[in-house]
TrEMBL record:
Organism of origin: Abeliophyllum distichum
Keywords: Cell membrane, Coiled coil, Endosome, Membrane, Protein transport, Transmembrane, Transmembrane helix, Transport
CDD domains in UniProt: R-SNARE
Pfam (any one): Synaptobrevin
All residue ranges annotated as the V-SNARE coiled-coil homology domain in the record: 13-73
InterPro entries membership: Synaptobrevin-like (IPR001388), Synaptobrevin-like_transport (IPR051097), Synaptobrevin/VAMP (IPR016444), V_SNARE_CC (IPR042855)
Main location: membrane
Origin superkingdom: Eukaryota
Segments crossing the lipid bilayer: 77-96
Identification of the protein by name: Vesicle-associated membrane protein
One GO CC term on file: early endosome membrane
Length: 103
């Protein structure tokens, strides 16, 4: 106690150092909380990215299936039209040949 009474300037310095340490401790605690929050946000973003990637893959495969289906449907339609044209040509040729103008 006598030392504290004889040297008040050192006690004041010690109090300042303790206050600075306390302030640094509070700042570090806030920083740690921010880092933890950021970590949670990063994990959330990673999950959303994985989900979006999966949805994009599904969309791509469905698009490929749809393109193949539409191509097949288009080819069927073209074949039907071609068949009708060939049938009409055959009918015209046969009707002309049956009238006696065929060699």
């Amino acid at each position: 106690m006598q030392y504290c009474v004889d040297h008040p300037e050192e006690i004041s310095k010690l109090a300042k150092v303790k206050a600075q340490v306390s302030e640094v401790k509070e700042v570090m605690m806030e920083n740690i909380e921010k880092v933890l929050d950021r970590g949670e946000k990063i994990e959330l973003l990673v999950d959303k990215t994985d989900n979006l990637s999966s949805q994009a893959q599904d969309f791509r495969s469905q698009g490929t299936k749809m393109r193949r289906k539409m191509w097949l449907q288009n080819m069927k339609l073209k074949l039907i039209v071609l068949g009708i044209i060939i049938a009409l040509i055959l009918i015209i040729v046969l009707s002309v040949c049956t009238r006696g103008k065929c060699h």
